[in-house]
């Protein structure tokens, strides 16, 4: 082993995320003095099978920082940063729990990301090259959440994200230029109807107007698309995050002022897909209903029904979804499973089964743009990183623009 790649120190600190909460930033330093960092994002709506964040009673992450500075630091000392799988397995074994609750998923994922970035820096290559090799890559299509509901907003909308999808473009730059035009047009429409105060931003940069009906939100966005002149190039999508409005005791979904049975929800989504150019639908049912996902996917042939809380970036649950033919899309979130290695295994399983991949941020983010490089390195179909606003979101878009300009990679055709 070359001493230049050996880990000399792993050290963490508390930093602020985009919601003003503390999270973990971990630095990895090699014996050659090469150093980089990784941040742990945090979700507002979380799947029950996600890796567990280690948090203090006051909301801080001092315990997680201590996990890194003591246990993880000593366990990884002398290991080669280039051997990502060995590093990640060491942390998994050290934690010893199913959901990484001993050391904390936030401690482990921040370290895992830091190791990957430090290895790339030590080798003198771009992070996306380190992850995906030296070949032609593609730039993923962004899913831009421009109108917020659910836990990401303060309105009465139950659907968590209303998304625009710029497919019909030759470059990411053109796609983002069109998407920002729609975003600004939407703001103007909301201002005209409700006043400028209602263009305040939600957690992921989308606006959160005083709406309560799903169709009202879709009408606003579709009008913005048409008024911007992109009716034939920009499609719509939704992240329902349905577990958040599912009443388990009654087995109903409480949405748009009424209670709907699972079968009625299938009709609800089908009617929306018939009325609007919807291409993408995430978490339309609660996180345990693999069967209803499958039924809906069979009825919406042209819609990418996608699992997030259904799978939590865990290959074990994705295998179940593959058997049930539950979805044609998956969300890929590093901190859900807790290591880069497990994330890549999940991604590969999806790709092997012709399932569309969506590398995704969390609602609580930092300026770390690792997921942009990861999406390019893996040739992901999509990337989901919020509205074209707020620095923790634009840092990912700007990194993608930089890669596109420097390397000339083509924009993904989905």
Q: Keywords, please?
A:
414 residues; alpha/beta; Enolase-like, domain 1; TIM Barrel; 2 domains; 8-stranded mixed barrel; 13 helices; 40% helix; 19% strand; Enolase; Enolase-like_N; Enolase_C
Topology readout:
Elements: E1 7-16, E2 22-30, E3 35-39, H1 62-76, H2 84-95, H3 105-123, H4 127-132, E4 138-139, E5 141-148, E6 161-166, H5 172-194, H6 214-227, E7 234-239, E8 246-247, E9 252-255, E10 258-260, H7 262-275, E11 278-282, H8 290-299, E12 304-307, H9 315-324, E13 329-332, H10 334-337, H11 340-352, E14 356-360, H12 370-377, E15 382-384, H13 391-407, E16 410-411
What can you tell me about this protein's structure?
This protein has 2 domains: 3-124, Enolase-like, domain 1; 138-411, Alpha-Beta Barrel (TIM Barrel). It contains 13 helices and 16 strands. It is α/β, with parallel strands linked by helices and 414 residues long. The strands form 4 sheets. It has an 8-stranded mixed β-barrel with strand order 5-6-7-11-12-13-14-15, surrounded by 6 helices. A 3-stranded antiparallel sheet has the order 1-2-3. Helix 12 (370-377) links the parallel strand 14 (356-360) and strand 15 (382-384). Helix 1 (62-76) crosses helix 3 (105-123), helix 5 crosses helix 6 (214-227) and helix 12 (370-377) packs across helix 13. The model has no long low-confidence stretch (mean pLDDT 96). Catalyzes the reversible conversion of 2-phosphoglycerate (2-PG) into phosphoenolpyruvate (PEP). It is essential for the degradation of carbohydrates via glycolysis. InterPro entries: Enolase, Enolase-like_C_sf, Enolase-like_N, Enolase_C, Enolase_CS, Enolase_N. Residues 7-131 form the Enolase N-terminal domain.
């Amino acid at each position: 082993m070359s001493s230049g790649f050996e880990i000399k120190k792993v050290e963490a600190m508390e930093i602020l995320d985009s919601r003003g909460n503390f999270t973990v930033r971990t630095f990895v330093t090699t014996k050659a003095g090469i150093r980089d960092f990784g941040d742990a994002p945090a979700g507002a709506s979380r799947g029950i099978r996600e890796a567990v964040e280690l948090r203090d009673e006051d909301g801080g992450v001092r315990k997680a920082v201590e996990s890194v500075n003591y246990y993880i630091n000593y366990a990884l000392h002398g290991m080669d940063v280039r051997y990502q799988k060995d590093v990640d397995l060491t942390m998994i074994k050290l934690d010893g729990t199913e959901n990484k609750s001993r050391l904390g998923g936030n401690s482990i994922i921040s370290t895992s990301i830091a190791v990957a970035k430090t290895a790339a820096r030590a080798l003198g290559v771009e992070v996306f090259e380190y992850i995906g090799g030296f070949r032609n890559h593609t730039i993923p299509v962004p899913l831009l959440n421009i109108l917020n509901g659910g836990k990401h907003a303060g309105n009465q909308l139950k659907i968590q994200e209303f998304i625009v999808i710029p497919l019909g473009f030759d470059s990411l730059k053109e796609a983002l230029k069109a998407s920002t035009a729609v975003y600004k047009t939407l703001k103007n429409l909301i201002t005209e109807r409700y006043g400028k105060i209602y263009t305040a931003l939600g957690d992921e940069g989308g606006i959160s107007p005083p709406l309560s009906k799903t169709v009202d939100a879709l009408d606003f966005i579709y009008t913005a698309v048409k008024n911007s002149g992109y009716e034939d190039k920009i499609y719509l999508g939704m992240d329902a995050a349905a577990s958040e409005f599912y009443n388990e005791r009654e087995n109903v979904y409480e949405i748009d002022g009424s209670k709907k049975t699972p079968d009625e929800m299938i009709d609800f989504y089908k009617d929306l897909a018939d009325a609007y150019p919807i291409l993408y639908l995430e978490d339309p049912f609660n996180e345990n209903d693999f069967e209803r996902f499958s039924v809906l996917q069979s009825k919406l042939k042209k819609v990418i029904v996608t699992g997030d809380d259904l799978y939590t970036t865990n290959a074990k649950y994705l295998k179940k979804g593959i058997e049930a033919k539950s979805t044609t899309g998956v969300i890929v979130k590093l901190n859900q499973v807790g290591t880069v290695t497990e994330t890549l295994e999940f991604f590969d399983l999806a790709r092997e089964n012709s399932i569309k991949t969506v590398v995704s941020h969390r609602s609580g983010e930092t300026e770390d743009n690792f997921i942009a490089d990861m999406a390019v390195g893996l040739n992901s179909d999509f990337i989901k990183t919020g509205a074209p606003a707020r620095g923790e979101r634009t840092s990912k878009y700007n990194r993608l623009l930089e890669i596109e300009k420097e390397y000339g990679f083509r924009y993904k055709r989905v």
